[in-house]
Amino acid sequence: MSNRLLSMLVASAALGFAISPAESKTVIQVMHQGDPDTVSACGAVAKRFEEANPDVDIELIYAPHDAYNEKFSAAVMSKQMPDIVELDAPFLANYVWSGYLQKIKPLIDPGVLDDMTDSNIAQGTYPVDEELYALGLTDSSVVLYGNKKYLEAIGARIPKSVDDAWTREEFEGYLEKLSNLEDVKWPIDTFRGYGIKTEWITYAYSPILQSPGCDLIDRKTWKSVGTLDSEPCVDALRLMQTWVKNGWVVPQSSGTNQFYAEGHPAALALGGHWVYAEAAASMKDDIVVMPLPKFGPKGASPNGTWIWAITTASQQVSKTAIARPPHPAYPMITSTFMQAVDEIFNGGDVKTALTAAAENIDEDVEDNDGYPPFDEQQ
User: Fold this and answer.
1) How many helices (H) and strands (E) does the chain have?
2) Is 344 a domain residue?
3) Would 178 be classed as within a structural domain?
4) Is residue 225 in a domain?
5) What is the overall mean pLDDT for the chain?
6) pLDDT(23) > 60
7) How many CA atoms lie within 13 A of 367 on its CB side?
């Protein structure tokens, strides 16, 4: 389906549009990110499309994952937005509110939409007008990976379903027991090595706040003070800070993977679905996939991934065919939250860091007059 969707976004304008041989080719710019395999796949799709549509040239514009949003912002400022753009799903509300994206549902084959999950459709839908502005090739989430050998060594219970997830008490008890195993250097890898220039911290750590009942921002009033720095959030981040202080968490300096690295020094991992293939190849039958623990009365897990959209700058529309908070302030929400977590993990006061983050978020909302019409959605 991925090839079909990407080709459709590029191809929709070709319907009813003809170019005579004397006319120059239409150039469609596509801005994207991704690992080498993804980049190669995008190139192959573009080549096949050009072969089938000789009147169109596809210009692929690659931007590194960690600098992608900055490069897109630079394109906006220089009035050189591409025709098609890839974006991380939680940034959709900001992009639509800012006038960067156009509706795409009329350009997409209904069969493609019918084949997608509700969450995939939701991540590309703007909550104000409930219109579709982007689509993803997949959806994503985060799970708890485990090394069965280590878990059996401490007598840990292996959850069989989401309803059977570990409780907070079980999880912390297992972390302590794992820390005493000779072959375990760290009980858990939370992939801190991804750093604070990606969405990882906001994406993966938010469920630990949401499970006990708090959030990054109140999704009715769109105020962060009183929510992000509420006692459940402070308690959740204080809990994670304790794991770090105890030496249970792989430090950022040790890179992005110690779970399935040589020797398997980490017993657990808070990882995305994309980790599974490499981890399974390395660990064989020792890999276990489990739901995230319940740190409160309910389970929580994230969703939302990179999605494709057509910009309002495109002149070739006939040729181009618990999520994180869906709000225009999201760029500020995620950046301030990640900075707060980084400060907390480095020993900072939890309440102080979260209050400062919440105040920065609210200041951004106020500076933009509430991001109308979001200011009316209460």
Assistant:
1) 13, 11
2) yes
3) yes
4) yes
5) 90
6) no
7) 9
